[in-house]
């Protein structure tokens, strides 16, 4: 990945060309998001905008033809990269990711969902077999899934772009930055209130519940990485942690949310630091 990032950053033409090729090739669209974010983070608004505009061509065509929502992630990561470059605050990035993903999910539902359903109806019929869904319920499920995928996809690709930037220009900086991702008590409190409201008013607000969990999960992952690094645990612990998350996500996910809330309220790093020194 670092080699691709280094090649793309040689010039604006290299960045645009690499991003366009990745956008056209199957299963490589995520690379375009990384390059757009990397160029914005490193070179600013004008350079990032040029790469974004060219990259939107293949993704816009895909949206028009099959209702592909990736273009929403592309625009979103561009905005998040600009916010991170301006504020250097991952807390603001995470909260903005929630806000933007909600808008993206609604926009997809209004503009592209019908095209998506018409193209992928055969596959969706197979997915519907275990549980019978009405047309309205299916629309909501797909829109909610897109909303969550946009949120996690943007954050994951922005983290990868930041890692590439650090590897090329400031080695070691990403590790410290990622380890310090944390929600302030105010942001954590707002998120907690939103979660309670969505859970209490499930019929009205229930669809937004998974989205409000996203900042807490990312913050908890940052803390988990910091904890393993502070204890000088091997890479196998990190691999095992994500393997467990993959296999037992339904059990680990609530724990991550609770961990994110505890870290927000108590600043666990400061409380555990003296223990580490002792």
Give a short synopsis of this structure.
This protein is mainly alpha-helical.
Q: How is the main sheet built?
A: none
| N-to-C span | 39 Å
Number of helical regions: 16
Helix content: over 70%
Describe this structure in words.
With 278 residues, the chain is mainly alpha-helical. Helix content is 85%, strand content 0%. The protein is built from 16 helices and no strands. Helix 4 runs antiparallel to helix 5 and helix 11 (185-200) crosses helix 15. The two termini are 39 Å apart. The mean pLDDT is 91.
SSE order and pairing:
Layout: H1 2-8, H2 12-24, H3 29-43, H4 45-66, H5 70-87, H6 90-111, H7 113-119, H8 121-128, H9 135-169, H10 173-179, H11 185-200, H12 202-205, H13 209-230, H14 235-247, H15 249-266, H16 268-277
Helix pairs in contact: 2-3, 2-4, 3-4, 3-5, 3-9, 4-5, 5-6, 5-9, 6-9, 6-13, 9-10, 11-13, 11-15, 13-15, 14-15, 15-16
Key terms for this structure?
mainly alpha, 278 residues, 0% strand
């Amino acid at each position: 990945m670092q080699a691709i990032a280094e090649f793309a950053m040689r010039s604006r033409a290299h960045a645009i060309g690499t991003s366009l090729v990745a956008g056209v090739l199957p299963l490589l669209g995520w690379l375009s998001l990384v390059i757009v974010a990397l160029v914005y983070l490193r070179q600013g608004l004008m350079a990032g905008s040029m790469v974004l505009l060219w990259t939107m061509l293949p993704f816009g065509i895909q949206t028009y033809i099959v209702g592909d929502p990736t273009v929403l992630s592309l625009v979103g990561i561009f905005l998040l990269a600009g916010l991170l470059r301006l504020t250097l605050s991952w807390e603001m990035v995470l909260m903005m990711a929630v806000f933007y993903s909600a808008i993206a999910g609604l926009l997809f539902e209004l503009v592209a969902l019908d095209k998506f359903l018409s193209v992928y109806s055969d596959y969706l019929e197979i997915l519907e077999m275990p549980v019978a869904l009405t047309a309205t319920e299916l629309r909501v499920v797909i829109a909610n899934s897109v909303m969550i995928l946009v949120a996690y996809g943007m954050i994951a690709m922005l983290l990868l772009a930041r890692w590439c930037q650090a590897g090329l220009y400031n080695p070691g900086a990403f590790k410290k930055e990622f380890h310090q991702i944390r929600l302030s008590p105010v942001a954590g409190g707002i998120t907690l209130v939103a979660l309670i409201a969505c859970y209490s008013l499930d019929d009205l607000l229930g669809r937004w519940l998974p989205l409000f969990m996203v900042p807490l999960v990312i913050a908890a992952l940052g803390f988990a990485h910091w904890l393993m690094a502070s204890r000088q645990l091997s890479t196998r612990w990190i691999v095992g942690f994500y393997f467990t998350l993959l296999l037992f996500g339904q059990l680990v996910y609530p724990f991550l949310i609770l961990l994110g809330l505890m870290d927000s309220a108590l600043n666990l790093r400061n409380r555990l630091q003296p223990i580490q020194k002792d």
